[in-house]
Amino acid sequence: MSRLLVIGCGGVASVAIQKCCQNSEVFTDICIASRTKEKCDALKEKLEGKTSTKIETAKVDADNVDEVVELIKSYHPDAVLNVALPYQDLTIMDACLKAGVHYIDTANFEPENTDDPQWREIYEKRCKDLGFTAYFDYSWQWDYKERFEQAGLTALLGTGFDPGVTSVFSAYALKHYFDEIHTIDILDCNGGDHGYPFATNFNPEINLREVSANGSYWENGHWVETEPMEYKSKYNFPEVGEKDMYLLHHEEIESLAKNIPGVKRIRFFMTFGQSYLTHMKCLENVGMLSTSPIEFNGQEIVPIQFLKALLPDPASLGPRTVGKTNIGCIFTGVKDGKEKTIYIYNVCDHQECYKEVESQAISYTTGVPAMIGSMMLVTGQWRKPGVFNVEEFDPDPYMEALNKWGLPWVVCENPETVTVWKAE
Ligand code: NDP
């Protein structure tokens, strides 16, 4: 029996909320709060009568700490699930500390305005010190550790699929299959087809910034940075088939490097089709991916936000997307003195997701783990004072919940491994 305040009502939130409502025994009460209250009301209307979870809605600007504090104090949740945007991570964490509730999210902080001089100064120092240039990193949220410890509260970071499930797969592999993990390759394959020449499967701003940034991987205790899409590979994904994939920087590399003792190399690969890459390069070349505001006809606009308004809403892709995703990790390491390799992955079918929650698999594979992470915390299975990434807790109850709530996983011994080359 618990009360959850969910902030955000987009693609991921919609799935997380529907899964909470399927799990009414745990989530007896939820409040859906977002910038656009009409979206929250529409989702509440869709769900009412089909769930015994009591749903309330509210309007909140999560960039405003006081507004979030006020909402928390009036609703009295046990925890806040942040499925708004990474821009709101710190303000929501501040509000949770002020109001005395636990915090959960699915993505690490990045600033909305990367030209902000105060942020930029810290960012540039970090680029030099750590050696990777992504706009997002965990330092901002890890910095809240002592404050959450002192308040006796838990902040659970990154309970989506990647980060999230891939991190839990790593903890599970270490607990049950290895004495020491030496390498982790995280493979994110979307074999879905939505029929558009170009669209992003989740928030375009977040997605395009991630994909157009430099790549990087972790090797022998430090970051190695690459040009965007510099390294390519091909992999024959179970239930999807052979796909091209590229090495990207990804946030869970940072936390896994810290939390998986003895790991020597961690890489992240994502599949992309040629049409997606050609469109993205063109948009980038003409400046449409820029986050710096420009003056247009007497109005200030941010190019990537304008582009977002032109692209199909990721939520609208659900009914048209066919095919499957396959996301998982290939681990190498040693057990009882012998070298071994295993692959843990989940396959998710876009159309099956749509039938269940009217959403495609990308939101589904993030929304389900957001519900599961929230369940781990509110039921007390994962709760201790401080700020934690998901791989720092016992993976077993989470892995069991993945099977139960729609993301079953497979462990494959001696899989094909990844060979990488320079893209042309
Ligand atoms: P959407 O853009 O679909 O939804 C974002 C929601 O947040 C919208 O409802 C939006 O409101 C709301 N919002 C934005 N700003 C504010 C604000 N200031 N105050 C209150 N609400 C606000 O994004 P997604 O659902 O695709 O993504 C949600 C989160 O999940 C993101 O942080 C994303 O990075 C993360 N994610 C994580 C993944 C993982 O595997 N770990 C994978 C995919 C996404 P409005 O409707 O008014 O715009």
UniProtKB/TrEMBL annotation:
PANTHER family on file: CARBOXYNORSPERMIDINE SYNTHASE (PTHR43796:SF2)
Pfam (any one): Sacchrp_dh_NADP
Designated name of the protein: Saccharopine dehydrogenase family protein
Residues of the Saccharopine dehydrogenase NADP binding domain: 5-156
Start and end residues of each Saccharopine dehydrogenase-like C-terminal domain: 160-406
